Structures are given as C-alpha cells and as structure tokens.
C-alpha cells in the first residue's frame, strides 16, 4: 500500500485534505508464466502481473458547524474512520450538545426537509434506511463514548429530545431502552452535587467528628503497601470519572471565572485529591513538634517507601504528590532531619525524583508513562543493587497474585498539553471556518487519557475503611503554619545550607516545572501569604504547586499542591495546568507522537495522517512554546501587578504583535476590561532588580530579551 498527497478540496463551508491510497488487489502469473504452468504466488516478480486499485481518502480540515455535523454521516464513506470519535471528544470546544443534536436530528434526521447530499434527490425507501442507519451509528457512538454530554439537570432537555426521536423513528429499539435507562440514572443522581465527584477523597466526616492532628503512631501502624494501595484506589476511582472534554484547554482555562466555579468538576476532583495527598505528607512530618529528629526522619523514610510502592502500582499521581511534598520548602529545609535518613532511602528518593525531572522537557516521565500505559506490571530499574532487589521482590509478589495493573497518570501532564495546544492553534481559519485540524491534535491527548482510563479497569483494589477514615480526618497545615513549624523544629534556620551531598542532585528547582500561567511564586524566605498548600477545600487556587515534572500548569486554579523548594529559591511555584506539556513519543490509541519535542516545547505537532484518519508526527511544522522563539511566534507569561501578581497567564504572541495587542489579550485572560489598554504598561522581568519597560507601540517579539524567562508584568501606569 502506498499513499500520495492529493492536495485539498474546497466545498461551500468546508475544506478537505485529500490522500490517494494505492492498494494491490491481485497478483497473477503473466502470459509466459501461465504457458509454463506457474502460479502467481510461486513466481519471482518479473514473471507476474500486479493489479492495483486507487481510492480517495478525504479528511475534513475546516468547516462550518453544519458541515462538521454532516460529515459525521459521511466520514465512513470518505474513509476518515476516526472522525466520529474525534468530533464527539472535542466538539464542546466550539458548540453545545443542543446545537449538534438539533442539526443531526432536525436537519439530517428529518427526511422530508433533509438537504443531505446523498438523500436530497433520492426519496426511496433504501435511502431512508441508509440515512437512519448512519444517524443510529452516530447516536450509538455518542451514547457509548460521551453519555455525560446529556447530563443537564433537572430537565435533561437533550436526552428527552433524543428519546422522542427514537420513539418516532426507531421504536422499541435497544437504543431507546438505553436512553430511558440513562435518563433514569441521571434523575436518580440529581441529589448529588458537583462536589459528589470528590466524595472519594474529600473530607466528608461524620457529624460531630473533628479534624485530627496527625498521630505518628497511628500513621506508622499502616503498612507501606497498604497506604499505597489505598491512595491508588482513591486515585483510580476519581481518574475513571474524569470526563475527557473537561480537560480541553478552551474549557479548563475558563474555570477561574466566577460563573464557571462548577466547571470541570471531574478534573477539580483529581486535583483536590492530589493536593490532599501532598498536604497529608507535610502534616504527618510536621504536625507533631515533640518528635525527635530520628522519629521525623523515619516518617520521611516511610513516605519514600510509600512512594516506591506507588511506583510499583504504576500510580504516578500519588507518586508525584508525595515527591512534591518532600520537595516543598517546609520539608526540604529540614536539613538536620534529612541527614538522619539512611543512604539507601536517599538513593531511592533520588531515583523516584528523577522520574519527574524537567530535563529534555520531562522526557523521562513522558516515555515512562507511555511505556507502562498498557503493560501488565511496572518496569523497575534501579542503579542501586539493594533497591533493585527490594523492587523485584515486591514486583514478584504482585505478579504472583495474577492480577494485572492499570496506570494512573499525573493528569497535569495532559492539562498542560491541551492548554498549550489551545494557546498555540487558532479556533477558526480563513472564512470563519472551524479549525478541525486543531481538534485532531487535541484528540491525540484525549485518546491517551481514554486509554489510561480503560487500563484502570485492571486494578483490583479493596478499600480499607480504617485508613480512608484516618486519611480524611487529617488536619492539613496551611503554608504559613508548615513554614513556621519547619523553622521551629529545625535548629538551623539557614535554608541555603544543603543536606548531604547526595541530596544536591535529588531536590531540584521545580519552579520551572510550571511554565505556563497561574504559577505562584511566594516571596523568598518568607512564609507565603497565599492560601494553604494548593488552596482550600481541596482546590488549590492558582497557587498550589508541586513536583518537578511535566506539569507546567498555566492557568490552573485548583491544581495542585505544595510549593516546591530549592536551596536558592525556598518557595516555589504552583501546580497549574495551563503550562507545560505532555504527550509522549509513543502515542496511545491513534496518538503516534509527542505534542512537544525533547528540546522544550511543542514539537512538530502531529498532523493528520490522511491515509488512516489518525495522527502522525510532522517535522515541518513547529508550534509556539514558552521561553523559545520559534518561527516568528512564542508563548509568554503575563501577571497582573498588584492583583494576584504571582498568577501568570499564557499569551501567544507573534512577530507582528505590538504592545496594545498583547496588553488587550492579557487583560482578557485575566478577566479584566480590555478597553483599558492605555492605562497599562508591559514590563519584562529580567532579574530580581532589573526589568524592561516597553514603549507604547513597541514590537514585543523583537523588543523582548530572549535570553531570560519570558515572564512579564502588566502594571497600571503611574
């Protein structure tokens, strides 16, 4: 089979990419070989005649909403086999469920008024059957893949409209029964609030029960593997509930608006759980001032062992949460305590930390996630022999149980990539057509999420109510409290002095981890004035942060957790989801490449592989990235001076943008009036004591200092 680029086809309201597919359909003996009595499959090539068939594959590149919906009915005929899944996974970024359903049922589902090309002039019974079969196929896929789209309490208007259509056109069908059951299910769940998604991890304590200060003895009574299994159980329950379209950049980036406080509840729930785990780690280590140094070191060692058990269970979410907590300023600065941690445990901690290293755009964690996404068990390698023996022994116990494991990812990775894609690619192209190529690229990330969700069905974990009750009842320390306690329990308060040499390489600066917006940067050596680690009630308001991995969260309010620390910069930035990047070199599902390259950002984003409708890598197109000018564009981070000045928003700029354009986009991102452009000045932060102020009509792209971080401040003029 060979493929040839067939260029583009333009119709009214749509643009298609065309690929010509040449397939061999027959190989027979040539005339001379037949005279000798030979068979085609037994002869060398020079004695055979091959017959080929050429077919045309069309993949819609851009179109109006009507054309995109119509394409749902013709995609199979055009050999664009993944189109329906891509559309259903991403359409919420540019249309509502009601709009799509009305087009599908009222325009294309009503034969009397249908303008569908294949049916307009054919009113035969056969054409009616064909059209109804096409619509039924789309509806079945919609209900199977995205049933949450129809959850509209209390009326469930779209679901009732669909039910009415099925009763009239497909009475007594299996689909009609399925819709009725789905309606009953939604109605029975109406009592649940949005916070119900967090029930697995939130502190829903029994009436009258109070939060408890961490009891070291009670915590020590739980075996390491039990704690890891229970954290994994909670993470799995929440991750499986994540609605993939909630992760789309155009949706997730809007969550901080007042009217969107209940937006993307399934994503917020996973973030809440992440923050809760991190806060629990900090509280157990610092919650009791009376502990001796050796006792506190033992608790740190226990959490490192738990993190290692999470690694064996392929739970990268809690693994990163624990590592993030241990790297937070209040824990990192306990140098005397760290000196009492055994060398073997420190080496284990270093290896676990390296999983989330920011080297080569977090290449290690990306490759590891995709390598183990569908594997039955973890692939453990250790440079330290003793740790290797322990790891293999624990892994063998898991294998002996005969139960396969799934993989729980660090969701921030995917949120980051989707935010970056949304920032870098336009929603509409020339003629006001919806840019569907952007949706194909977003689907690569969504497909990975769905694949990992499916793998989580392999877990067979039983909840331990004793641990879960203990976990939920813990009193979490705020950043101010943890910092104060850290100074009190540590004799030497100089945070610039490092722990043992072995720790220098393990605990890295994690502030660069979130290169997007909404990163929180508390002042040096001062207890932060922001909210508790990652926010209250489990939702880290734009300030929480964690670990050292691929989550360059840019606009993420509720994203994650503990501020990270380093010798030079005690308090770090937050876990946000607008920044950063994810992806993987080996895609899952239809994904075949990383969204961002190893160097530092969006690589040659995947382009449509017209031969199969899936996505493949292209090395010719480069997406804009943070901290690097590529092809006349880049992404900068802009904060508002005096208004959440530690929260950044990602802004895409090109070499044509001047100060008024960038200022207006920044104001919109921060939900401020864009008309006040003249009242602000744009400043690039060069260092702690230096900044670059731009003249009113300057070209930002050419005027900025490209040798420092692309961090800007929007400040009201004096």
TrEMBL record:
Residues 541-551 have a biased composition (Polar residues). Pfam families: RA, RasGEF, RasGEF_N. Keywords: Guanine-nucleotide releasing factor. Residues 531-540, 580-594 have a biased composition (Low complexity). InterPro entries: RA_dom, Ras-like_GEF, Ras-like_Gua-exchang_fac_N, Ras_G-nucl-exch_fac_CS, Ras_GEF_dom_sf, RASGEF_cat_dom, RASGEF_cat_dom_sf, Ubiquitin-like_domsf. It comes from Piprites chloris (Wing-barred manakin). Residues 632-718 form the Ras-associating domain. One of its GO terms (biological process) is Ras protein signal transduction. Residues 569-579 have a biased composition (Basic and acidic residues). Residues 223-492 form the Ras-GEF domain. One of its GO terms (molecular function) is guanyl-nucleotide exchange factor activity. One of its GO terms (cellular component) is plasma membrane. This is RGL1 protein. Residues 518-617 are annotated as: Disordered. Residues 56-187 form the N-terminal Ras-GEF domain. PROSITE patterns: RA, RASGEF, RASGEF_CAT, RASGEF_NTER.
